[in-house]
Every structure is written in C-alpha cells, then in structure tokens.
Amino acid sequence: MSGATSTRELSDEQLDRAFGALSDRTRRAILSRLAEGDAGVLDVAAPFPMSQPAITKHLRVLEDAGLISRHRLARRRMCRLEPERLRQLSDWVGSYREFWEESFERLDELLEEMQGTGEGT
Amino acid sequence: MTTTDRETQITTPPGEPTITVRRFFRAPPELVYRACTDGELLRRWWGPRRLEVSECDIDLREGGTWRIVHRAPDGTEFVFRGEFLELDPPHRRVGTFVWEGAPEHEAVETMVLEPFEGGTMVVTTTRHSSVEARDMHVANGMEQGIVESHERLDELILALQSAPER
C-alpha cells in the first residue's frame, strides 16, 4: 500500500456527478443489485415502491454519472454496472497521496508568498 | 526548479506500523516550521483545496493541544486533534494525531526539518498503533472529504469485489 493511485482521472464535474448519484439510497440499492449481475429495468425496479418513470429517472442519473450503462438484449432493456467508475471514486476517496500533494502545493505557494514579502528570511 | 525537486515520497514499510512522507520546500526551516505550527498559516494550506479549514486552534507548547476542523462543500465536518509531546523549533515536532472519526486510533507524528540544498527537507513519520490501523489511515486518505458517500462506497466496493469480473 504505497500510495500511488490514479486520482487525476476524474474531473471535478465528474466527481460531483458521481457522488451526487451515490447520495441517494435508492440509487445505491440499484448499484448493489447490479453488482450481482446485469438486470432488466423491470427487475431493477421490482423491489422499490415507486413508479417505473421514477426508477427510470434514477437510472438516468446513474448512467450520466458513468456508474451504469444500458443496453438492449432482445426486447429487454438491461442495466449493467460499470465498476470502473466506482474504482476511480474509491481511488479518489482513498488517496492519502493526494491529500499531501495538494497540501504541499499550497504550502509552496504560502512559503513563496511569505518570502516574497520579506517575512521570516 | 523541476517538478521532481518537490516530489512527495510516501513510504509504508511492510510489517511496520509507520508511514513516512518526505518533501522538499524551497524555504528555510524557520519559515517552514512556522507555516506548520502557526494556526493562521496552517489553515491556509492544510488539506485539499475543496475542503475548508473552518477551525484551527493550536496551543503551541509541550503538553498543549491542537484541533483542526475540515469542512466539505456539503457541510460535512472532519475533526482532527492531538497533543504536542516535543517541540524543538525549527528542527523537530512530535505530537499525537487523532481523527475523531476513529478516536480509538491514536498515532504519533514526528516531523523533522533539515536544511537541504538551500531549502528544507521535511520528513514526517507517523507511527500507528498497528499495521492495520496504519493501513486504514492510508486507505481512508485521512478523511478526504465526502465521508458520508465514502462509507456507502465501501459497502458498494465490497459488493463489487464479491461480484464476478466482467
């Protein structure tokens, strides 16, 4: 566990969208369901006490966030988990390195500023 | 100045509950020490940009305590605290470090500043109570914001890991 993770893969916009998508209980439950395997839209919707359009809206949010993809299998509309995006998020969240690298860049700027104004040298 | 001059080196020796972060700064040790111990200065650089340091109280004396609160854009707060065990400006600072999200894990952080090629090499070694505690600390990225999502993400990652690869 020596730190090196690919944390610059996602833009802030992508991160916001993905975390926004994860902030909803229903959508997390859908992802957990899809972690077991691809499922038809109707099967995904079955456990939830909400209308089909409401579920479709959740699926669209997940799709826009890159967390799932949709395709057709014969006449069925299928959903598939896109595990790569979750892994990217996990890397981002778990990045000890990023915490320090970004902090140190800010410290560089502060030190330059302090020296630029003749302080402390 | 090339970018490699300021590369952050992070080492986690296998089997040892320590993590070492090494970084060069183009400023004298006195200045770096001050930036790391003065609350008004520390709050301007500590942590990722997207997290605001909303509180930063430092009682800089041996036996004194410090407390830093990080605030994420969604309002979630992360609180860190510790106690200074040894202060030897501008060479060395030793203190405890606790994230209140896991208060049972107290780490001891030793920061050493050495003059190096016209600047300062800062080596911070954090010793955790166990290798597991260290790994958790690293895996959590300290806190790295969005912990609310993070906990849920953990559950999802677990589910993913048990799912067959595609």
Give a short summary of the structure.
By secondary structure, chain A is mainly α.
Radius of gyration of chain A: 21 Å
- What spatial order of strands do you see in the largest sheet of chain A? 1-3-2
Q: Count of helices of chain A?
A: 6
- What's the pLDDT, averaged over the residues of chain B? 79
Total number of β-strand segments of chain B?
A: 8
Rg of chain B, Å, rounded: 17 Å
Principal-axis shape of chain B equals: globular
Q: Low-confidence parts of chain B lasting 5 or more residues at pLDDT below 50? A: 142-161
Number of continuous helical runs of chain B: 4
Which percent bin holds the helix content of chain A? 55-70%
Percent of residues in helices of chain B: 10-25%
Shape of chain A: elongated
The fraction of residues in strands of chain B falls at: 35-45%
Described by strand count, sense and barrel closure, the largest sheet of chain B is: 8 strands, antiparallel
Share of β-strand residues of chain A: 5-15%
Question: Explain this structure to me?
Answer:
The complex is a heterodimer of chains A (121) and B (166). Chain A has 6 helices and 3 strands; from the N terminus they run ααβααββαα. Chain A has helices spanning 12-22, 25-35, 41-45, 52-64, 83-93, 96-116; strands at 39-40, 68-73, 76-81. In chain A, a hairpin with a 2-residue loop joins strand 2 and strand 3. In chain A, helix 1 (12-22) runs antiparallel to helix 4. Chain A is elongated, with a radius of gyration of 21 Å. Chain B has 4 helices and 8 strands. The longest helix of chain B has 16 residues, at 147-162. At the A-B interface, helix 1, helix 2, helix 5 and helix 6 of A face strand 2, helix 1, helix 3 and helix 4 of B.
